[in-house]
């Protein structure tokens, strides 16, 4: 076999190996959270509404005269935290999409107070809606929502950030709490 034939045969093999390596690298360069986290909050809230419809608890504790006001306040706080966090993501050119890689470690702004300000925002929105409508089922199933977020979303994100940013993330994790 002459040199030209050897070269022609090795080029496709090298190209295939490069493509495979690139695909493997890009697959690993994100947290692996394929379900957008806000969908969990929406699904749990919708499920609680169905539970309330089919199995009403009949508890009027949340149905007070100032209930809607408190609900609006929590919704407003959640929307504010979420908006500030989204603006910070846009400025840093990072993506909130959990199947894309992070370009930089967020440690400033709202990230000085919480490692997960978007999820804090979603909790305020969730509980604001819960109080606004007075749905006890939402409160009863909230620990399961926290568990799903912690085990499926946050655990994967933290593992990814540790792998991606190493010691910088470990130091950040030591100095800033997960929620507040």
TrEMBL record:
Chief subcellular location: membrane
Domain of life: Bacteria
Subcellular location: Endomembrane system
GO molecular function: methyltransferase activity
TM stretches of this protein: 32-49, 69-92, 113-130, 136-154
A GO-annotated cellular component: endomembrane system
One of the GO BP terms on file: methylation
Membrane topology, record value: Multi-pass membrane protein
Gene3D superfamilies in the record: 1.20.120.1630
Keyword annotations: Membrane, Methyltransferase, Transferase, Transmembrane, Transmembrane helix
The keyword Membrane appears for this protein: yes
Coiled-coil spans in chain: none
PANTHER family, alphabetized: PROTEIN-S ISOPRENYLCYSTEINE O-METHYLTRANSFERASE, SLR1182 PROTEIN
Name of this chain's protein: Isoprenylcysteine carboxylmethyltransferase family protein
Organism: Arachidicoccus ginsenosidivorans
């Amino acid at each position: 076999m002459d040199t030209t034939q050897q070269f022609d045969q090795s080029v496709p093999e090298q190209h295939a190996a490069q493509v495979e390596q690139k695909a493997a690298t890009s697959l690993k360069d994100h947290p692996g959270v394929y379900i957008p986290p806000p969908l969990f909050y929406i699904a749990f809230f919708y499920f609680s509404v169905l539970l309330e419809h089919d199995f009403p608890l009949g508890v009027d504790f949340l149905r007070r005269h100032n209930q809607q006001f408190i609900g609006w306040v929590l919704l407003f706080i959640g929307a504010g935290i979420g908006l500030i966090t989204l603006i910070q993501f846009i400025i840093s050119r990072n993506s909130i999409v959990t199947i894309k890689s992070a370009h930089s470690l967020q440690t400033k702004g709202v990230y000085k107070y919480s490692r997960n300000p978007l999820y804090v925002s979603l909790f305020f929105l969730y509980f604001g809606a819960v109080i606004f409508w007075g749905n006890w089922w939402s409160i009863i199933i909230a620990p399961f929502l926290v568990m799903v977020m912690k085990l499926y979303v946050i655990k994967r994100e933290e593992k990814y950030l540790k792998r991606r940013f190493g010691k910088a993330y470990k130091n950040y994790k030591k100095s800033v709490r997960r929620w507040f």
